[in-house]
Every structure is written in C-alpha cells, then in structure tokens.
Amino acid sequence: MVVAREDCQRIVLTGVGLTAPNGNSPAEFREALLAGRSGVCEYEIRYFGKTVAGVCDFDELRHQRRKEVRRGTRAGSIGIYCAREALASAGIDWDNRDKSRVGVFVGVTEHGTVETENEIYEIKAYDYDCRYWSHHHNPRTIANNPAGEIALNLGVTGPHYTLGAACAAGNAGLIQAVQMLRLGECDLALAGGVSESIRSFGIFAGFNSQNALARHEDPTKASRPFDRDRNGIVVAEGGCLYTLERLSEARARGATILGEVVGYAMNTDATDFVLPNAERQAECIEMALARAELAADQIDLVSTHATATPSGDVEECKALARVWNGVCRTRFNNTKSFIGHAMGAAGALELAGNLPALADRVCHPTINLDAPDPECERPGLVVDEPQELDRVEYILNNSFGMLGINSVVIVGKV
C-alpha cells in the first residue's frame, strides 16, 4: 500500500518490547523504576575478572528454538525477543501482515566483538588452528546481524539494517523508522536498539583503561550519575524495540497509541574521540525542539543520558542549563542509575521507562544520588522517590555517544 505524502507525517508508537536488567516487560521495568530497584549485580568475565554489570535474564527460548539460539548471537536473541514482544504489545495481526511493507531498524553501539573474542578463545584449545573456526562467524559478525536475525525470525521481506551510532543508537533507530515511514518506504517499523556489551571482555578492559569503569562495594550503588563520588560506567546489556506506524493507520485499526514522535535531531561534536561537547549537545536539543515547534518550558520530562563519568555528566548539565535557563517546571531524571549503561539499547530503554508518564503523570526518580556534584546540580532533578506531575504531555530523550554523536527524540501525548 502506497500512502499519500500528506498522510505520512504523524508517526506514533503503538507497541514496545524490552528486556532490561531489572525487568523483561514494560510493566516489570516500570514497576522496578518506581520502586527504586536496581538491576546491577556482581559479574565476572574471562580475562578481565570480577566487576559489576547490568545482566538480563529473559527467556531466549520464548521465541526461538535452541538450534537458532546456538547459531545466532546474543544481540540477535535480544532483538528477536523484543520484536516479538513489541508486536504482541501492539496487537498486530502478524500472520496476515504484508511482510514486504515492514522495516526493521536496530541501533547498536558495536557488533561482532563478542563473537570474535569467543572464536579466538575456542580455537586456543586447537593451537589456533583456523580450520576449527566456526562457519557461522561471518553472518554472526556482519554489521546488519541484529536486524537481520529479527527479519529472518519474523519473515520480514522489507528493508532491514543495523545503525551503528555508538550510545546514541537507540534514538537513531527510532529516528530512522520515522523517516522511512514518512517516505512511504514501509507501513510498519520495528525500531530501537540492542546491546550484548557485557559479553565482551574488551569493552570492560577498554573502559577500565580510560579510568571510566565504575566500582563500588555494593553493585546496586555502582551507577551513580550526577553524584560527587561517581567513578564511571556500569556496562549493561539489554534491548528495546517499538512498533511505529502512521497515526492514520494506527487509528484505523483501533490501536492503543503510546505516544507520537513529534521531534528529533542528530548532530556531531567534531571535537574529540570520547570527550563530550556541551555546546553541540545543546544545539542538538534545540534542533529537536525547533522541529517539534516546542519551547523548552513545554517539555515536561527530560530523560538524561548521564553515564556517571566525571566529564560526561558535567557537560550534559551545561547543555541542559543552556537550554532550560530559567525554566523551573521541567523535571529531569536518569535511568542508568538503575540498570547501568546499555549502550546501543540505552536510549530506547530509557524512553520506555519514562513513556508511561504520558498516561500516569509519574516521573520515576534518579537513584544513588547521595552527594550531588555542585557542577551537576539541576533544578527539577527528581531524586530517590517518584514524583507525580501536574502535566506530562512531552518527554525529551537524550542519548549521546563516542566520536561526538548526539541524538534527541521528543515524544508527545496524542
């Protein structure tokens, strides 16, 4: 079905499927966030040793056979679980859906390191004889793998690809879906982000070498954005995918509409490999507001990116201060304090944690903020306890990543 361009502009979220370290459904995830329950735990990975991480415990066999799980990747399994759950959440009649008009757009921070590390470890037992290298390695490590595994599982014959956008990737997946729906390239999109990062010892070693890996005697307190004693990132796995449709089609089938993507933006710092740039971040937020035709004081809730790195949190707070200068009514929170940094899935998961606020007007808190860093103090930051707001009509979701990639998505109530 080809839709006239004038009917393609309003894009809505109608379903969500997720797995997070503290919940395997939107309801479980939301309940944990409102209850202040962390999903970070002790974790040990070969070569690196003991650390902390956000670990998911979803049922891989709910939507896959054992053979499929063995052949594929952890990121693929996360994606398949989230995609199937999102379709069920949206009430999509999948058996009768035209699969050629469905698109799959999945954001990742990285892909292939886990599988390569595993293969090198396995052939060590064979004196590194490459004849024992898995013939599944190439399809496991190609960049489009997570989206491709979802497409294979669901029988999707429309466009699929994975977007490498560092830790801005969850938002990037949503933005790509909105654009493809508006262009008429598909009629239904599955989009968001996934991460298998905790399976790679190289990621832990890399952050450790940057002095950016969190440590705390209590794992549940290790992720502490904005806190004076924060000392780095808690690496997490997870995934979150949404079903997106044109508003007219969602209404025609009587779908429950979770929210409308009313604005978005992406830009680049172009200043450093890892150090963020507050000015560029502020510009990204301002571009998203302009696209949505909203002023900063019309945003009710801001989901911060804050990873709990010393410079990252300060730079984002500078950006927030520039955009919300003098604005007191907007509330701010952080989800990484509960689950750690889910990398490519972070933006999509953090939006999912806040999305119910459009209906119940409750802002979940930031936890582990015991001694606020004066450089990170932000009027309206919700801490420790959920806060009921007078109004929640617009949520702004920040996600920023290495090599200076920034993304912002604004979702509004319909």
Keywords:
Peroxisomal Thiolase, Chain A, domain 1; 14 helices; alpha/beta; about 425 residues; ten-stranded mixed sheet; 2 domains; single chain
- The order of strands across the largest sheet is 5-4-6-7-1-8-14-13-9-10
Helix content: 25-40%
CATH third-level topology of the largest domain? Peroxisomal Thiolase, Chain A, domain 1
Largest sheet: 10 strands, mixed
Query: Strand pairing plus helix content: what structural class?
Result: alpha/beta
Report on the structure:
A ten-stranded mixed sheet has the order 5-4-6-7-1-8-14-13-9-10, sandwiched between helices. A two-stranded antiparallel ribbon has the order 2-3. A two-stranded antiparallel ribbon has the order 11-12. The chain is an alpha/beta fold and 414 residues long. The protein contains 14 helices and 14 strands. The model is unreliable at 1-5 (pLDDT under 50). The chain has helices at 26-35, 66-71, 74-90, 113-123, 137-141, 145-154, 169-183, 201-209, 247-252, 278-292, 310-323, 336-339, 346-354, 357-360, and strands at residues 11-19, 40-45, 49-54, 102-108, 160-164, 188-195, 238-246, 259-268, 301-303, 331-333, 362-363, 387-388, 394-401, 405-412. The chain folds into two domains: 11-252, Thiolase/Chalcone synthase (Peroxisomal Thiolase, Chain A, domain 1, 3-Layer(aba) Sandwich), CATH 3.40.47.10; 263-412, Peroxisomal Thiolase, Chain A, domain 1 (3-Layer(aba) Sandwich), CATH 3.40.47. The chain is globular, with a radius of gyration of 20 Å. Helix 3 (74-90) crosses helix 6, helix 7 packs across helix 13 (346-354) and helix 10 crosses helix 11.
